[in-house]
Amino acid sequence: MALDGIILSKVKEDLQKHLPIRINKINGTSDTEIIFNVHADNVRTSLVISLHSIYNHISLSDKNYSDYEEPSTFVMVLRKYLINGIIHSIEQYDHDRYLLLNIKALNDMYDEKEYVLSVELMGKYANLILIDRETNKIIDALKKIPPFQNTRRTILQGATFTLPDKQNKLDPFLAEVIDFDDSLVKQLQGFSKQLEQEVRYRMPEESFRDIMNEIRESQKLYISSNSEYHVIPLKNLGLEYKEYDFSEGFDVLYYKSNEKERIKSVTEDVSKFIKRQIRHYELKLSKLQRSLEEGETLDDDKENGELLYTYSDLDKKGLKEIEIEDYNGKLKTIKLDPKLSIKANANKYYNTYSKKRKGKVYIEEQIEIADKEREYFTALKEQLDIASYGDALEIKDELIRYGYIRKKNNKARKKKTVSLYQVKIGDNTITFGKNNTQNDYLTFTYAKPGYTWFHAKDYHGAHLIVDTDKPSEEVLRLCANLAAYYSQGRYSSSVPVDYCLVKDIKKIKGAKAGFVTFRNHKTIYIDPELDPDLVITAV
After folding, report:
1. How many Å from the N-terminal Cα to the C-terminal Cα in the chain?
2. What residues make up the domain containing 400?
3. Same domain membership, residue 507 and residue 382
């Protein structure tokens, strides 16, 4: 469900507990999500503002958010005015779905200025607007709205800022007269249909005022098993629910959903490029294979040339064909160019043979190259399917590094440590990568020679290590399960997984990252299935 005004009022109360909040960095992770790296209560954390039409919300989060590769113009404007600024107060009027963050920051002349950041969380109309408090003029906005689109509220640089239209509804915490025969959403501030359904469900047993007092006192978010949520349990759904602090609750609800948007922002163009490359090399292989098949007659051309040289003393022209006894004593009909002599026809067959022989070598080399490229891009496609936001950025960086795609600007991207993933099991730690960059780093930099290494046989997939040379049966099977699951064979059964010591692995000379050879290995067969309770952490 969407955020309603009542929930937002509780979020505001939660944020106010952490004031003042200093803004250290501002990053955009997708077209609809902006992350403020902030310092609050002596702790560095993130203030997430999502303007997605469905997932829009604002909350603190301790999740790891990567920088978007290329900050938008709006993010650059926010950085210019708000970096090192302090959020000192937060306002909300009439329990409507917007918050006004009042921020003090220094301008270019080091004079203190007051700004307002209007966080408007109204579904498809969600927006983020930066305002100069002194002049009440809009500095910039995530979504611009010119007068011809909305004559009542213009949102453009330099326009006077106005609040969203008031709804002229009653305050549900103070209202004394409510018509319960009419819609509560139409009468009461901050009410959604979901909250109205819950209130009406409870009212035979509880008074309206008691329900509102429960909402007033609530400092938790209650999330039902179908992901519907509110600041009180939604008993009308008849489903199990869990209780969370606000920051944790919004991470549970939206981190993965917004992660998909972040990944999409990075991978949309990359995915199209990879699919285009796969199609290109498949078509190229098809053409090369046809050319190779056409060149299979080269032995006949050689034999025809040799046989014709037997009669090379015949300089007669005008023959379209000739019958000659071949090496097996059988008569063979050889077609001739009537314009040429027998000897010249023999030379022509020899020249054709020589060209086909050289061409065959070249074509075979090109088939090998094209096949490797197709396999490489097929592996990248598989890796994108299971990529996190950081993984997707690494894949894009890999394509830039190998020269397949060009970086849009010349500004060097800040080098970051390679992401890896870990699972703890007893005294052992299992570590794995999900793309070529991570696999290469894991196997040849991170792993020690005595660790055990795993990889799904004949499939593109994760490199995985466990910090022992003699894994127990339980550890062995979990490693094989993870290696199979994070591979192209995740939906197959009885997937073969090879394993050996790290010291028995070698990088293929001249090959791209992630491609290896190994020896002294064993194979285990496993049906891939990821335990939903398995705790996988990014490191």
Report:
1. 32
2. 263-412
3. no
| Distinct helix (H) and strand (E) counts, the chain | 11, 23
Distances (CA, A) of 199 to 170, 243, 270, 299, 421: 16, 19, 48, 88, 44
Cite the DSSP H helix spans in 386-435: 389-401
Q: Is residue 434 part of a domain?
A: yes
Beta-carbon contacts of 240 under 8 Å, excluding residues fewer than 6 positions away, are 224, 225
In a domain, 166, yes or no: no
DSSP state of 414: P
Name the one residue in this structure whose structure tokens are 């549970």. 252
Residue 388 and residue 510 share a domain: no
- Tell me, yes or no, whether 109 lies in a domain: yes
- Beta strands (DSSP E) in 107-237 are 112-120, 127-132, 137-141, 221-224, 229-230
Tell me the per-residue pLDDT of 84-124, one tens digit each, with 9 for 90 and over: 999 999 999 999 999 999 999 988 888 899 999 999 999 88
- Please check the confidence at residue 417 and state whether its pLDDT lies above 80: no
| One domain, residues 320 and 281 | yes
DSSP string across 437-481: HHHHHIIIIIS-TTSEEEEETTS-B--EEES-SS--HHHHHHHHH
Query: 501 lies in a domain?
Result: yes
